[in-house]
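Researcher: Next entry: Cytochrome b5 (Ascoidea rubescens DSM 1968).
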Amino acid sequence: MSKIFTFEEIEAHNTRDDLWMVIEGKVYDCTSFLDEHPGGEEVMIDCGGIDATGPFDDIGHSEDAREMLEPLLIGIIDPTSVAKNSSAAAS
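Model: Predicted structure:
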């Protein structure tokens, strides 16, 4: 069973040393991937602690990129949790 996180928990993980993000309802710890990200770390840090589904989809990531997320998966977002600072709220 996957661990279930709230957006309040996710929002605390928004730094270079501790970077989580939500993509399509799944929670990823992307900290270890920062140095490998082809688009640079800044874009990932900007998406830290939020629902990054919009920015992730807007870039048009490949199927290979989506597969690279799999080992970073740490849980899912609580569907009743509401994001204060998400890509959806910003648009």
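Model: Note for the record: Residues 34 and 44 are 7 Å apart (CA to CA).
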